[in-house]
Amino acid sequence: MRFLLTDEQREFGRSLDALLTAAGTPAVLRAWAAGDHGPGRALWGRLADAGVFALAVPEAYGGLGPLPVESAVACVELGRHAVPGPVAETLAAGALLGGAGGPAAKEWLPRIAAGTAVVSLLLDGHGPYALDADAADAVFTVTGDELRLAPGPGSPVVSVDPARRLFRPEPGGEVVAAGPGVREAARAAGDRAAFATAGLALGCGEELLRATVAYVKQRTQFGVPVGSFQAVKHRLADTLLGLEFARPLLYGAAVELAEGPSGAGAAVAAAKVTAGEAGYAAARTALQSHGAIGYTEELTLAWWLRRARPLRDAWGTPSACRARVLAG
Predict the structure, then answer these.
(1) Could you please report the per-residue DSSP string of 134-152?
(2) For the whole model, what pTM was predicted?
(3) pLDDT digits (tens, 9 = 90+) for 65-108
(4) Across-strand partners of 224?
């Protein structure tokens, strides 16, 4: 297996980094958390122009994919910049609607690829909440062999990350596909969502580590930078190792997904648990290394700190992923 990215894939990641750096995502995050989705939707449009959402949509529906490796590159960058919205869910909708087929796929997949539709999902076995349902153009739910379009976003619930808003979608809704194919498509969509979330968690952890290293070089104690202390160095080194171990698992899962989604579940679970735990460990290191300032709302990094644990648990808790790896 080849885990090294090509020059084109690396350039794709660099172009997304430049785009998101210029976009100023902290301001977009604050607006999203306050219920103003305008800046976020505008950013989604620019990401769609770069081809991000088309990567998960089959070519038959106007997309470029599925291209799991390129999707992983994109998700890491989106995680590094904490792009708000149901990113993993919208990407996973490519597998759900593409697998289920029918009029819903023809209606929604071209819009997802073009960036004009934001989609959230609620699948059997993946918890009771749909992420950012109030901002989504559609919330698809799967129960058994039925794929439905939820009639409304439902009621919100408290979230650790105010820019990741959780909702209980209203029950019922129009049945847009039914049959055994729906169950299989939902299983594939769950894997795609877990895979995308692993990329987001890895990127989140990378940004937390980068910001922490920069901070400990500036913060002084006893007349020297705190980053010169052995205890701090060791903690940062452990954090880096965790993130670097997660990276090949993410791209290994991408390779297996590209070869065929049916046998990639264990690889996706391994990537998800490793990236999720590494990102959360990076958050703990960042919080401890920043000291009391790490708790403040004024610190921009707080948005990444609050995101790491939800990403660790979304679309497969660590215990669930480990059980799947062992079973696989």
Answers:
(1) TT-SEEEEEETTEEEE-SS
(2) 0.97
(3) 899 999 999 999 999 999 999 999 999 999 999 999 999 999 99
(4) 221
